[in-house]
Specification:
Elements lengths: L4 H4 L13 H6 L6 E4 L5 E3 L7 H9 L3 E4 L7 E3 L4 E3 L3
Antiparallel strand pairs: 1-2, 1-3, 3-4, 4-5
The protein binds zinc ion (3 copies).
The site of one zinc ion has 9 residues, from helix 2 and strand 2.
Length: about 90
């Protein structure tokens, strides 16, 4: 099934709001990997990190698509579809 949220949410090139996980930077916590929200530019930590802020950001805001914020990685993922997304 193709992801329909990329049109609905006006996914675009976003400027990252922070260089690391926004919430972890505030609380002084560590993270494993970073994800960036393609709706608003929020940077959050992945599900391998103890705080899982990227997923919490989706649950709180409904912003569905994140992209890897790791160097050399460009994959995108839709939480609602639970699958990787191709943005052409
Ligand atoms: Zn989707
Ligand atoms: Zn975090
Ligand atoms: Zn967002």
């Amino acid at each position: 099934m193709a992801c329909k949220h990329k049109e609905m949410m006006k996914i675009k090139d976003v400027e990252p709001g922070t260089k690391g996980c926004e919430e972890c930077l505030k609380s002084g916590d560590d993270w494993v990997h970073l994800r960036i929200c393609l709706t608003c530019g929020h940077v959050g930590c992945c599900d391998s990190s103890k705080n899982k802020h990227a997923t919490k950001h989706f649950e709180e805001t409904g912003h569905p698509i994140v992209q890897s914020f790791e160097p050399g990685e460009g994959w995108k993922y839709c939480y609602i579809d639970d699958e990787y997304v191709d943005l052409e």
